[in-house]
Design goal:
2 domains; 347 residues; Endonuclease III, domain 1; alpha+beta; Nucleoside Triphosphate Pyrophosphohydrolase; 15 helices
Amino acid sequence: MFFYNNLINWYLKNNRDLPWRKTKNPYKVWLSEIMLQQTRVAQGLPYFLKFTEAFPTVFDLAKAEESYVLKLWQGLGYYSRARNLHFTAKHIANDLNGEFPNSYKELLKLKGVGDYTASAIASICFNEDAAVVDGNVYRVLSRFFGITTPINSTEGIKEFKNLAQSIIQKDQPGVYNQAIMDFGALHCKPQNPLCTECDLAVNCVALATNKVSELPVKIKKIKIKKRYFNYLVIITEGEKTIFKERTGKGIWQGLYEFPLIETTKSITAEELMDREEVQMLFPEKTTITLFNKGEIVHKLSHQHLITKFWIVTTTGIAEASMPWTSIEEYPTSVLISNFLKDYSKAK
């Protein structure tokens, strides 16, 4: 009980004033938890406010066009979260009459809802003693109990979940879950944790054994894959371009982009012009110039996109039907969005 009680006491004195903390409405709690997956609170908060204004209820989100949902999500990354969010909103609105499942097991059945999100909603909204385990929780538990099992191993995931579940109490599980998450984010931080002023310090194994900086243990990441992207930014005499939705199941599905040629290495303008797909697309009166002076490296979790934006000036081609002035209306990746900002400044 020492761990549980001290954590609750710390939270009551130090909890963050966040809008989703002021409600037990499962729609808003669900929205916040999906947004905060792999996202800092400071980054996610403006998006939460923007979404709740645009979509006050799950019915409003369900009725929205996916492209509009993606546009509002733009810049938050991991766009599959937004697509799953929209899919689940339609399921809840149309199949469940707007009522969220009220248990951990039933919440897990929702698309895009995993163990952590189901536990958070079940505990905060329905007072179920379901313990959350995220990066903050891993850090706090591994340090306090001195656990060296890698947190991203099958064994570690099971061990930490069982430990977290053994600690949580039935009286106020939602408060406890928010307490341990805030404690990890604000106090038991990855770097420079506040050990000298910690309510848990007297029983912290990592502090006693001088292993705070070594915990939690994590297996090294997989090798980063390099991909070479060449975007063809087409500008016709009529100020039109090609800007289409990205299809398939890869990154940025449903977002819009310029024609893309992926290569196995960095290429020159001459090498680009020699490619068959480029020669088939453009008429003879075409010039291609590189917009960015150096390669842009856009880093994702398991891949680095080494990118060049090529400005293609041409008299006109049939496929170029998108007015340049309409581009901003469509959802794009951060990579494309940043280019558009830079290009606008350079014009």
